[in-house]
Specification:
17 helices, 7-stranded mixed β-sheet, 5-stranded mixed β-sheet, alpha+beta
Length: 565
């Protein structure tokens, strides 16, 4: 098996876990994958990209053209002077190599010619007849599938990202019916039914998301409460097209925020090995949600909630003690096609963990690297810019003059777990370890060259606006205490955090902080909220420095941050 042809990677995902299980039941063996060079390969899934049409002559290895219906591997040894012919017609021709005795012009046909200047064959690509366009190929393969290595492949699925670049997964036909039945969660979709196909394709692909781990969550643990739309009026600059021209005016407009869109609260007892994390991004069949660490059972106890009848939502739980995850319909994409109870009784209790919040790579999470988009949005004066970049310039001087600072910089901007026994793979690793072994290493030419590279790289980043600032990348949690109140039917639309305020343990309280959307896509993606203490959040949520709790009731923070996605 030529493993060099295995160009794509099938990420560890809920789909892969299920496919391995289905393969065992269908083929009665464990050979879904085979091992080579400490890597696993599988012939049962193929990622198809529709880049090329089928033409009368098709290109192989860059410069070899082979007539449709012939395999280059079967005829490459039969080529004479870089051309192979049958009954006076060109079957294969190499346009990259010099020719000793070119064949007559009439034998080359309309598509090829001999270039006397380069002494090579050349091709008129525009003259080569197209037998099947990429669009026709896609339609044909989607309906009929194809064979590879004796295996019949049929269309499987594609994510919304893959759809944008024209990719699609095909799967061994014998595995398809069971994996498709599993991913549908008992949905009955018949030919001719009206269906939002683009959305459906995206949602069944949620289980193919790359995951780092899995968590067991009993569907009886789930409570689904209604989403809440905060509608309010705000003074804004509104741009409209008037008589074919753009006009911007100050207007009072009505805005609306879905304050818990894609958000869930999950009891700390379900976090397993991740109890020290503030959030987990989870995936399952027709489900994706950012689940924040919360003390749900403590909330119920403190509020005298002892029976399921006291809850304001839908669940299949048998007892109040089972409720460990509070979510909303915005996280359950199944509700666009089917009923909640059917989803709760048919999903797999294994949820995939996509990621959790992390510290920045710089100075143990104390610094973040800025970008020029944010600097441009701040509209600072020259004096203010000078003050902003002063610490970065001071740090640069310290890197130049103090080997201890340089070693510290290497550690906190690269590998942070380097041991003396680790293989010396990178130049930075070597320098870091030698600096720790002997101070005299600073007198070597190798150290001088490395320091010069570090300084050059540092200056390049400064010119691009990548300043080191006191900050981090934080995950947004919107109105969590209000979500707890919603679960017990006591939410009245009042904000517990307050307009213009946030709560994060990363910065001092009663200080205005600068918030910026990342990625920063618009000048308005900046926000100046007041960081305030919040007893309720500290009591019922389990914050980390990388979580920021915001309010979007009655204020346009989600619009300002372009949806805060």
């Amino acid at each position: 098996m030529n493993t060099d042809k295995f160009l794509n990677k099938l990420d560890y995902s809920l789909d892969l876990i299920k496919l391995i299980e289905i393969y065992k039941s269908v083929y009665r063996n464990n050979r879904f994958t085979f091992e080579e060079n400490n890597k696993s390969f599988s012939q049962r899934v193929i990622n198809v990209t529709f880049k090329y049409s089928v033409k009368e002559y098709n290109r192989f290895f860059g410069n070899v053209w082979v007539k449709l219906g012939f395999d280059y591997n079967d005829i490459k040894d039969k080529m004479v002077d870089h051309v192979y012919m049958i009954n006076g017609k060109v079957i294969a021709i190499d346009t990259n190599e010099g020719v000793e005795s070119p064949i007559p012009k009439e034998s080359l046909g309309n598509c090829f010619y001999y270039d006397k200047t380069t002494h090579r064959y050349s091709v008129y690509e525009y003259k080569i007849k197209t037998i099947r366009t990429t669009r026709e190929l896609r339609k044909d393969l989607y309906h009929k599938g194809f064979y590879c290595d004796g295996i019949k492949f049929i269309r499987f699925k594609r994510s919304s990202g893959a759809a944008r670049v024209g990719k699609c997964l095909f799967i061994d036909e014998k595995l398809y019916s069971k994996i498709h039945k599993w991913e549908l969660c008992k949905l009955k979709i018949n030919e001719g039914d009206e269906l939002d196909l683009a959305a459906f394709e995206a949602y069944i692909s949620l289980t193919s998301s790359s995951i780092i781990d899995t968590l067991y969550i009993d569907p009886k643990s789930i409570l689904v409460v209604n989403d809440y739309e905060s509608t309010f009026k705000e003074d804004a600059l509104v741009t409209r097209i008037v008589d074919g021209e753009l006009h911007t005016n100050d207007e009072i407009v009505e805005l609306s925020n879905s304050i818990w869109d894609g958000q869930s609260l999950m009891d700390i007892s379900l976090f397993g090995d991740y109890q020290d994390k503030g959030m987990l991004l989870l995936r399952n069949q027709f489900f994706k949600s950012c689940c924040f660490n919360c003390n749900i059972q403590k909330w119920f106890k403190d509020n005298g909630i002892e029976r399921l009848e006291q809850l304001n939502g839908q669940t299949i739980a048998d007892d109040i003690s089972q409720i460990k995850l509070i979510t909303t319909p915005s996280s359950i994409k199944y509700l666009k096609f089917g009923e909640l109870e059917q989803w709760l009784t048919s999903i797999t209790p294994i949820f995939g963990v996509v990621k959790y919040e992390k510290k920045t790579h710089y100075l143990d999470g104390n610094l973040v690297r800025c970008h020029y988009q944010l600097i441009n949005s701040l509209q600072m004066t020259k004096k203010e810019v000078k003050k902003l970049i002063e610490p970065s310039f001071n740090y640069l001087e310290m890197i130049k003059n103090d080997p201890v600072v340089l070693r510290h910089y290497i550690k906190y901007t690269g590998n942070t777990d380097m041991e003396l026994s680790d293989p010396l793979t990178y130049k930075s690793d070597i320098t870091y370890k030698l600096l720790g072994l002997n101070d005299k290493f600073t007198q070597t030419k190798m150290y001088d060259l490395f320091k010069k590279d570090i300084i050059t790289s540092y200056k390049k980043n400064l010119r691009e606006g990548h300043l080191f600032l006191n900050g981090n990348y934080s995950t947004i949690c919107g109105n969590p205490v209000e979500m707890l109140y919603q679960a017990i039917g006591k939410f009245d639309g009042t904000s517990q955090i307050g307009i213009g305020k946030v709560h994060t343990t990363r910065f001092k309280y009663n200080k205005t902080i600068l918030g910026s959307r990342s990625p920063h896509i618009c000048q308005c993606n900046i926000w100046l909220p007041l960081n305030s203490s919040n007893e309720m959040i500290d009591k019922y949520m389990n914050p980390t420095n990388e979580i920021i709790y915001i309010n979007s009731i009655g204020e346009s923070v989600l619009d300002r941050l372009s949806g805060a996605d």
